[in-house]
Amino acid sequence: MPAFLRSKTAQYLLAAVFIVFSLLVLNLRTLIPPDEGRYAEMAREMLLSGDWVTTRLNGIKYFEKPPLHTWMSAVSFALFGIGDWQARLWNGVCGIFGVLMVAYTGRRVFGGRAGLYAALVLGSMLFWAAASQFNSLDLPVAATMALALCALLIAQQDDADMAKRRRWMLVCWAAMALSLLAKGLIGIVLPGGVLFIYALVSGDRGIWRRLHPVTGLLVFLLLALPWFLLVAARNPEQPQFFFIHEHWDRFFLKTHHRDGPWYYFLLLLLPATMPWLATLPASLAAARKRVEGRLQPARLLLVWTIFILVFFSYSSSKLPGYMLPVFPAMALLAGVYLDRASRNAALSAPALLVIVGVTGVVCMRFFPIINLPLLGGAFGAAILCGVAASIAEWRGQRTAMVVLAALGGWMLTQLSMTAYETHGRQQAGRDAALAIRAELKYDTPVYSVGTYEQSMTFYMGHTVIPVAYSGELDFGLQQESWRGVASMDEFYARWLLSAGRGVPQYAIVREDLYGVLRLRGLPMIERARGNGIVVVTSPLKY
């Protein structure tokens, strides 16, 4: 078996198995609010409206993010129908692509087994494996930035001829354009900052002449500029909100209430890089060494990792997904390190799997909202794979060890996420949404009183009228105030008028406000309950 694992046939088979199972697990869980429900609903509305320029959430203008994720999810819905796995497909494809690109780049740049090991490390890192199955914008921007990084490494190799360098640098510029369309200005700010610092610390000033800036910038603008021009022409308010409020204010101010201490991301690295945490310090330290040649790929990866972590650590807005772009660089360095590491150093990954698995089994009783059999399976898989990987390493079978440790990390992540499904379904309000979905027509009013449940609109297949609520819909409601109801008194009047006429209407009411509505004597019938909400309808005759 170990000899077989080193063959190309085995590596292609391993890639095929990884791809198949990564796609199969996309449909195991409900879309968790807020992110998963939000971006699925935006894509559903885009597909049904046919407007691929003005992005909307709940029918209201929503310009917090660029449109690439919404475009790709809408395409997924068009091809395969509207559903959970279709909403996650773009993230799943991006996660798979990132792993395969790291494998290819590692082999081309570092040779040997480094590419294979790097791909196994990235695919099994807890945050990367989880984000590949979670419908949000962070993994796609990490994947497009990984493409930019990998293309740059391949293009700048010392033995690259002019045609190869130009081809891969154009890929790099195109990838940065996609990153801009995926998440915003970080798609160009982060790679630009990395290049500037790398040129300083490496002494490779000539790299600026090898970037093909003229043709590269042309490719970048052809891909990225059209949407920004179109959306600004149709919505003159978009540029100020997008570039100032969503970039400058988010980075420097605490208005988004997502601040954290400077060591926020350093602490997150502990669970995020499982089970490869113990290999990372040594792999990062080894990257400081200068090697022969003009390009210093390990140093570039080190600069990429440190700069992005420092950049987001300084930012006033911090969320776990922001750190995802560092993982492809870390995985490449870990792949190089594992290819040369001593036995004792390599054993750290399977040992950590066993420790986590045993600790998890001991602490399982503290997870009452989790499916305990599945969670037990997750910890059991970590223990079994960790033990098997340790045995393989002691027998001198490094590749088998990395494969088994990666399998353990991947299964630990996927089974743990699936164990959350029972609570996740309730959190999303899926059953409450499905209880009334068949009764809703296109023009049926559905009010959302004091709340906006991100996943319920998707599962109902119907937008809602926000009542006495703005939240993240605030900017859009300022532009289109008629899409909401500003006060409870106005809602009472509307509800009573429609009830008196016998017009079907529904409301999703925050649980604490439900008692207030009853005290006001509003005619309503309770239909369903969810996570902190009550779904009501008015009697047909009142």
UniProtKB/TrEMBL annotation:
Q: Which InterPro entries match?
A: Arnt_C, LipidA_mod_glycosyltrf_83, RgtA/B/C-like
The answer to whether the entry has keyword Membrane is yes
Assigned keywords, A-Z: Cell membrane, Glycosyltransferase, Membrane, Transferase, Transmembrane, Transmembrane helix
Occurrences of domain Aminoarabinose transferase C-terminal (ranges)? 434-537
Q: How does it sit in the membrane?
A: Multi-pass membrane protein
Pfam families membership: Arnt_C, PMT_2
Major place of localization? membrane
Q: What is the protein named?
A: Glycosyltransferase family 39 protein
Say which species the protein is native to.
Duganella dendranthematis
